[in-house]
Amino acid sequence: MIDISNKTEEDFLIIKLEGEVDASSSIHLDKALRKAIEQNFKKILIDCNNLSYISSAGLGVFMSYIQDFQSQNINLVLFGLSDKVKNVFEILGLDQLLKISKNLEDAKSLC
Amino acid sequence: MGRFFLMLSNKHIVRISVIVAVISWLFLLILDLFILFEISNSMNVGIHREVSAFLLDLFFISLFVFYKIRIERAESINFIDLLWRVFVTGLLATIVSFAIRFFYLMVGSSNLAENPYLINFFYHINLGLISAFIISTLVVWKRLILYQKTKKLLILWQIFEYSLLCSILLNFFGIEVLGDLAYNIILLTLLLLGVILSVNLKWVAYLNFKQKWKSILLIILVILYLIYFFINLRTYSEDNGPVIITDLLDNVFVRALFGFILTYCIFSLLVILFNLPTSSVFEQKFEDVINFQRLSQSIQGGKNEEQVLEILLDSSSSAVLAGAGWIEIFKNNSENKYLRTDNLAIKDIRRIKEAIRKSKIKNLLETEIYSIGNVNKLTASIKDTKFRSSLLVPLIVQKSQIGIMALLKDVNDGFNKEIIDIIRTFANQACISIENFRLLGEAIENERYKEELKIAKKVQKSLLPSNLISNACFDISGFSVSADEVGGDYYDTYPLSDHKYVLIIGDVSGKGTSAAFNMSQMKGVFYSLVQLDLSSKEFLIHANNALSKCLEKTSFITLSFYIVNTKEKTIEFSRAGHCPTLYYNHRKGYADFFENKGLGLGILRNDNYKKYVEVNHIDYGNGDIMMLYTDGITEARNELEEEFGYERLKAFLDDHASMDPYSIQRDLLETLYTFVGGKSRYDDYSALIIKFK
Fold first, then answer.
1. Chain-wide mean pLDDT for chain B?
2. CB 3.0-4.6 Å disulfide test: which of B148, B382, B554, B629 passes with A64?
């Protein structure tokens, strides 16, 4: 189960993920990201402070947008990841393709 | 006799009856003319009047048989058609009769007009047609009276019918024998029976408004015919009494029939007239029943949910009479869909919704109602330019609201309790239909899914190697278990030469058939590339290229690739996003995870991928153990939702380092099962364990 909420700060879109992203809830994540791209946000921050788990399907969602982000000059930064979640990103190697930072402030400066 | 008729088909009987009727009528005519000749010439050839009576009876009976088969046996004739037949027969008789009158009008008071033979001839024509008219009407009336008959009614009718037949025969014996009193008693008895039977008018209730008006018209015409025929016959016998040999009106049968037909005409006319104002109500009820049936049957007819709701809206809006309405279907992921009646535009709906929001039943629009049983207010007046009252009915399927139906009327308090009950019944029936539809769909889907899983599992099993390479330099053991779902774990080995071996373990993202399918692609890629004797880096770059083109957008594969050289005792390896390998160093006496970088296959689908491939080399020693595994093991959770994790895996290998790979594998599974507590909770566990000698 996952709760996704959006808010904007300055020109940042902050997508807050709460709960677990597994095969079924990854659909909602995918929708949220697609909507953000369609709305032409160039600075997207993913708040993972309350993200307890992400499955390979969830990683697949992030992964599927990497090339879109690059081609459309979209800056996406994940922040507030727990060690466990961060480890999942690192093992797959996604930390090399996505920006990951500690907190919101750092994330904004990375954009 | 009965047997004789049974042997004949109805067609034959009709033909015979027509022939008998025509012949008997002709003979009657000839005979009567002959008797007339005999009388006028004061001759006595000895022809008895009984013969002409007999011929008349024969004529009646054959007509009766003819119409009985033609009308009574005719199937699927509606009431209006029946009345129409009566009307047409009567019309024919009237036209002919008028033609005769016209003839007399033309000839004036000449000799021809006074000719008794001619008068008699024309009288016989009238006699034949009027007999046909009253007898066919009798049969039609029989059908109408016996509509939805009871046994009692049927018996009563049979008494009436047999009495009428008897009265035909009375004619044969000569009415003079009986005397006036007996004649009147018989006539009155027959008429009484006719009156009793005439109260059976059930068919009237089944006429709609238009049909009732038609019936009234036709019955009035039939009454006019009857009166005209009766007067016509009377005039003949009064004006030309001595000339008429066979007077139709002398007949009890004919008089009784005239009386009966007239009585039934008057009864029907009155009943139809009194029923006229209520016919619309009856029609409505009838339509409601039919609509209800349509709703119940809509699912069997292979209709989908939306079609069922369309039928519901259609039935409901016609039930409330001249109403408008819409059904809003709630959609989770997209905009709500509207079904609406033709007289309502989308912008009307928006406006009326606003009006409802200001009314007493606004909460029906706002909140989801799970049971309409405890909602007592479904209807309210609204302030709108076009509509004055509204009725909202929530549609509930499997305890969740799938939508709401709104019905509108242009009058205040347009929905009474009866209408609301009917609409709610309609809605319930539609919801039940949809529920059945969904349950059926789920059952089919489940069955299909199970079948799919079975196939996927089979495919997956066949992709894993049944035999691993064996070698004097190391022992190897591998396993992959998956729970109820199909996993995407893959491992394999391949001997490049007698001292060079490739080991691979991978995990395909996703589950089910797509995972099994991607896994088979992985196997294909592995077998085609591994034979090229590539370095681990080259292998991963080529594999990434190949898989980038065939994996769907959100799928990827993680992989660890090892080339073991037993001659040089070295291992070259690269990791493509797969969980880090656990390596037990016998010399150091403990296990640790490799910390090399890498990126999953299919994540970066361009040339940049090669930047992320790292190649590592190690030398191995005797007793070293390499454990390749998939994340199902480290992510296995116990009842407290704790993961098995890296530390436990490391500790496990430390404890079991002295064992052979097969025993390690056995103990690992046992440890995992104990950890998760109950086999029902386990996921996919795969591992490949190599112990170097």
1. 84
2. B554
Residues present in chain B in total: 693
Amino acid at B237: S
**B647 and B523 inside one domain:** yes
B209 and B300 co-located in one domain? no
- Same domain for B118 and B235? yes
Tell me the chain B residues in contact with residue A62 when contact means C-beta distances shorter than 8 Å. Answer: none
Provide the 10 A C-beta neighbour count for residue B162.
Answer: 10
Residues 539-568 of B with CB under 8 A from A: 553-556, 558
B224-233 pLDDT, tens digit per residue, is 999 999 998 8
- Work out the minimum CA distance from B576 to partner chain A, whole angstroms: 7
**Residue B51 covered by a domain:** no
Which of these three, B216, B244, B277, is where a domain ends?
Answer: B277
For residue B553, give how far its alpha carbon lies from the nearest alpha carbon of chain A (Å).
6
d(CA B453, CA B442): 16
- Tell me: do B304 and B208 sit in the same domain: no
| DSSP-based three-state secondary structure for A56 | helix
Share of chain B above pLDDT 70, in %: 91
Separation in Å, CA of A94 to nearest CA in chain B: 7
Residue range B147-168, pLDDT digits in tens: 877 888 889 999 999 998 888 8
pLDDT surpassing 60 at residue B592: yes
Chain B interface disruption, residue of A21, A35, A53, A56, most B CBs within 10 A:
A56
Residue matched to tokens 């009943």: B271
How many structural domains does chain B have?
3
Q: What is the ipTM of this complex?
A: 0.88
Instruction: Please give the residue range of the domain that contains residue A101.
Output: 2-110
Which chain B residues are closer than 8 Å to A67 by Cβ?
605-606
Q: Is residue B452 assigned to a domain?
A: no
Q: Which residue has the higher pLDDT, B49 or B523?
A: B523
Question: CA B200 to CA B196: how far, in whole Å?
Answer: 8
Does B201 lie in the same domain as B252?
A: yes
For residue B400, pLDDT over 90 is answered with no
B interface test, pick of A21, A28, A53, A63 with most B CB neighbours within 10 Å: A63
Question: What was the pLDDT predicted at B1?
Answer: 45
pLDDT at residue B35, rounded to an integer: 83
| Cross-chain CB nearest to B603 (options A23, A31, A63) | A63
User: Residues B303, B263: one domain?
Assistant: no
Chain B residue whose CA is closest to A56: B509
Q: Which of B553, B600, B643 sits opposite A92 (nearest CB)?
A: B600
Residue B548 has pLDDT above 80, yes or no: yes
Q: Which domain holds residue B201?
A: 77-277
Please tell me whether residues B239 and B351 are part of one structural domain: no
Tokens found for residue B305: 């949910």
CA distance linking residue B64 with residue B61, whole number of Å: 5
CB B33 within 8 A of CB B24: no
In a domain, B394, yes or no: yes
Q: What is the CATH number of the domain that holds A7?
A: 3.30.750.24
Whether the per-residue pLDDT at B369 is higher than 60: the answer is no
Chain B residues close to A25, C-beta within 8 Å: none
Q: Is residue B118 part of a domain?
A: yes
Q: Do B165 and B137 belong together in one domain?
A: yes
Alpha-carbon B389 to chain mean position: 32
Strand order in the sheet with B616-619: B489-497, B500-508, B557-565, B570-576, B616-619
